[in-house]
Specification:
The complex is a heterodimer of chains A (about 260) and B (about 600). Chain A is α+β, with helices and mostly antiparallel strands and about 260 residues long. Chain A is built from nine helices and seven strands. Chain B is α+β, with helices and mostly antiparallel strands.
Chain lengths: ~260, ~600
């Protein structure tokens, strides 16, 4: 009797829990559909607000970031569009929609990057995610080989071949992921009509404006200004609020 | 096994023989195909080393206006009627930078310390585009240089300017329509002391005829600005990639006489099947000079902040009827053409009657470069009820056309300041009108209408966007693998060391032997076979002590034991008993034998 009561309580709890989760999912999907509806009827400021709210409450997903980026692009906010496409690319690097729209926005806005070097071309064969997988695969393989050979020795040539291939995969994977991570510009200019200054104060002479959507690498900070290099190699100071980090963790760690 | 060795020997001998044969007849040839070609096509230089190897070092001479690009090597090996020959051919793309007749001096090939040279090669670069005539640029002395270019840049004249002055320019990039070009960058400025406003948006695309040739023209509107006084020489550059069609030159099956002869010689097949060579180029403007003057000190107003250009000022206030202590919003618009980044808010004369807050600003760009309206919004609080107007505000700038400083002043704006608590008759709302501010019309063009559609599934949500190698599961797997690998490597190393150490090996063997001997001892003890037990004891003692003392086991006697072991060692008694059993035939009782067994085991384990 006692067992039966416990069983019924457990069943009830699990039912309540699952229905709560289901309800939450339903609500989330409804909100997402509402955001999409705002986008479809051309109310892009509302779509931006709606998607941003969803992200703030529930976190990131490639689809959310991609739709938010589209809304920003249609709303004429190229900097934030590029920022969110870049974020979406970090989460889903091979999505053709994200890649296509990012390239379209960059091309239409005149955000050229110049000729790629050999190493840039080579390491662009795979994304940072797949270089990481390659390194991990090599490591798993060499570990498995060591485990197998403890109990059952393999032939010398076979063992050397497998070890060499695994080490090659590890070296290539680590190099690729490291190169792309080190050379990726971590921030995007989001400010309209931003001007690169030669010194970190408002009245300083300007060396020209910097387009919103430009990828930049912040190098140092002084007061409310950041010294940075943009993807075309120009260097200068920008107000901190005119750039946004692609990875939001960087922003919080900086603060 | 012997057969295999013989086969390997024969193969090596044959290879060595061939190598010697090949080395014996080395010859070097060079050819260029075609020997006459246009600037748009390029040619291929082939250096063939007959009887050579890939180790041959080819030294190409320097030829002015000609660049050689290596395109790899190919090797050929023939064995016809028992006679062998081999050759290595190195291929180079010949890229001319100017038309003319050229001679490539003898090419030197070094192989195994010997030097070989080719004959000089002659070729002609033709089909120079006809020089275009005319043009909109004032720089006529550079027209001849531009005429030979397939692509060039032109900008509108700049002249003498002032430090910080914004100079609007029109920048045009011309590309010959016969050439396919990919842009790798936007035009950029090459020079010191002058900066160019980065180009934004799509350039205007038109077509122009310069001379008798059609050009595709990209036009940007932008501006230059001097940041250092003095004479500055600069150029504008643009990186592009020219796709040059490369003619098929290798003789093919279809080019041989009598076999589909001439059927594939049509240039059509060059464009369809032929390759395009990607040739990076830098499109340049002619050298330009801009003289930057310092602003005059004479007549410089005290409130001058560096604004240079032509500006208008308009000021409005809202509301104009307030109670003392209530804020009035002052709207100040400066419109015109110039360096708006140096335009600051007009200043209110210092007075104790007003409390002013920091103004906020916004900029609305105009249709022309460097033009627009900068609007400042400032809150002003009247402190006294006696105030009847907002005093005139002033803004100073330098006009480069008249070369004079100018100060704009607004008219006083009438206001009514009531004392707090006076019954208020609500006035009609005052419209914010700014006469000088241009009316902005919203653009109806829908941007980015060709973006891919939004996604309909929200997907998996995550609180963080981090590279995969920072995710916890990835780090966990990597750590586990590294730990496992370390442990396995340590185990392997330990095993290898053990296998390599003779002492350890011997010790292990001794332990194994002892283990086996004791099992036999146990058997004999169980069978109550005291004679065999003592015989085995004797053997065990001789073996173990022999190894321990580095002596022959058979040579060990009771004397050795009494000399080397302590007098009270049980091993001596055991050995004595084994001696007596062997030579006297006496065997001890089972109890004694059992005791011997335990003592023996104990003592030998101590020795181990």
């Amino acid at each position: 009797m006692k067992k039966q009561a416990i069983l019924i309580i457990l069943l009830l709890l699990s039912f309540l829990g699952s229905s709560a989760c289901f309800g939450e999912d339903l609500s989330l999907n409804n909100q997402f559909a509402q955001c999409n509806a705002a986008y479809s009827r051309g109310d892009y400021p509302e779509a931006v607000h709606c998607y941003s709210l969803l992200i703030e409450k529930n976190g990131f997903s490639p689809a959310l970031l991609y739709n938010l980026a589209n809304s920003y692009a249609r709303n004429g906010e190229i900097g934030k569009a590029v920022l969110n496409y870049e974020r979406a690319m970090q989460m889903k690097p091979n999505d053709p929609d994200i890649l296509g729209n990012l390239q379209l926005v960059r091309k239409t806005s005149g955000l050229f990057t110049g000729e790629l070097t050999f190493s840039q071309r080579f390491f662009s064969i795979l994304t940072i995610r797949y270089w990481s997988f390659l390194a991990l695969g090599g490591l798993l393989f060499i570990t498995a080989l060591f485990l197998v050979t403890v109990t059952r020795p393999l032939g010398r040539s076979l063992s050397i071949t497998v070890q060499s291939l695994s080490l090659l995969a590890i070296v290539l994977g680590v190099s690729g992921a490291g190169y792309l991570y080190r050379n990726a510009h971590p921030a995007v200019v989001i400010g309209h009509d931003s001007r690169l200054l030669i010194s970190p104060f408002a009245g300083a002479a300007s060396i020209g404006s910097i387009q919103q959507g430009r990828l930049v690498t912040p190098e140092k900070r002084y007061d409310s200004y950041v010294y940075l290099t943009d993807e075309t190699g120009r260097k200068g100071w920008l107000p901190r609020e005119t750039i946004e980090y692609i990875n939001p963790v960087n922003r919080t760690s900086e603060q | 096994m012997l057969k295999k060795l013989v086969v390997i020997f024969l193969i090596l001998s044959a290879t060595a023989g061939l190598g010697r044969h090949a080395l014996a007849s080395v010859s070097v040839e060079a050819s260029i195909e075609p020997s006459s070609f246009s600037m748009l096509e390029g040619a291929e230089l082939l250096v063939t080393v007959q009887g050579g190897s890939r180790d041959a070092e080819i030294l190409l001479p320097e030829v002015k206006n000609i660049t050689f690009h290596s395109r790899g090597q190919s090797s050929q090996f023939n064995w016809i009627n028992g006679k062998s020959s081999s050759s290595v051919t190195s291929s180079y793309q010949v890229e001319p930078s100017a038309p003319g007749n050229y001679t490539i001096p003898p090419i030197t090939v070094t192989m195994d310390g010997d030097r070989y040279t080719t004959r000089p090669l002659q070729f002609t670069v033709t089909d120079t585009p006809a020089p275009p005539a005319g043009g909109s640029s004032a720089n006529t002395d550079t027209e001849k240089n531009k005429a030979n270019d397939l692509a060039f840049l032109r900008i509108s004249p700049t002249g003498n300017r002032y430090l910080g002055e914004i100079v609007p320019i029109t920048l045009k990039a011309y590309f010959d329509q016969r050439v396919r070009v990919d842009l790798n960058s936007l035009p950029r400025l090459d020079g010191d002391g002058i900066v160019m406003e980065p180009l934004q948006g799509k350039p205007q695309q038109t077509e122009e005829t310069v001379g008798n040739r059609r050009y595709s023209v990209l036009t940007w509107e932008t501006s230059l600005s001097g940041i250092k006084a003095g004479e500055h020489n600069f150029r504008l550059l643009l990186d592009a990639t020219m796709l040059v069609p490369v003619k098929r030159r290798r003789p093919s099956l279809f080019n041989s006489p009598g076999f589909f002869n001439n059927g594939f010689d049509d240039p059509f097949f060059d464009s369809v099947f032929g390759n395009y060579q990607r040739r990076p180029i830098t499109v340049q403007s002619p050298p330009l000079t801009m003289y930057i003057n310092m602003l005059p000190d004479q007549g410089k107003p005290a409130d001058f902040n560096g604004a240079i250009g032509q500006f208008q000022l308009s000021v409005a206030a809202d509301p104009t009827e307030v109670e003392a202590g209530e804020p009035i919003t002052l709207l100040m618009a400066i419109s015109g053409k110039g360096n708006f980044d140096r335009v600051t808010a007009p200043t209110l004369p210092a007075s104790d009657d007003w409390k002013g807050y920091s103004p906020s600003d916004s900029f609305e760009p105009g249709t022309n470069p460097a033009s627009g309206t900068k609007t400042f919004e400032q809150a002003l609080v009247p402190k006294k009820t006696a105030l009847t107007s907002i005093p005139p505000l002033s803004f100073s700038y330098f006009d480069p056309q008249t070369r004079q400083y100018r100060t704009l002043s607004s008219d006083p704006i009438a206001i009514t300041v009531k004392s707090a608590g006076t019954p208020e008759i609500s006035p009609p709302p005052v419209a914010k009108t700014l006469t000088a501010a241009p009316s902005t019309t919203p653009q109806t063009v829908e941007p980015y209408s060709d973006l891919a559609a939004p996604h309909l599934e929200i997907g998996t949500l995550s609180r963080r966007i981090t590279p995969i190698f920072f995710s916890s599961w990835y780090l966990l797997i990597v750590s586990a693998c590294c730990l496992l690998l370390t442990v396995l490597a340590a185990v392997r190393l330990h095993h290898r060391r053990q296998r390599a150490n003779p002492e350890l090996r011997e010790k292990r063997a001794r332990r194994l032997k002892l283990h086996e001997d004791f099992s036999q001892l146990e058997d004999s003890l169980k069978q109550n076979d005291s004679h065999r037990f003592l015989h085995l004891c004797r053997n065990i003692l001789q073996q173990q002590l022999g190894q321990w003392w580095r002596m022959e086991p058979e040579a060990i006697s009771l004397v050795d034991l009494t000399q080397r072991l302590p007098a009270d060692s049980p091993l001596i008694a055991i050995y004595r008993a084994t001696d007596e059993a062997a030579y006297g035939g006496t065997t001890p009782s089972h109890e004694i034998v059992s005791r011997f067994y335990h003592q023996l085991r104990q003592e030998l384990e101590k020795l181990q």
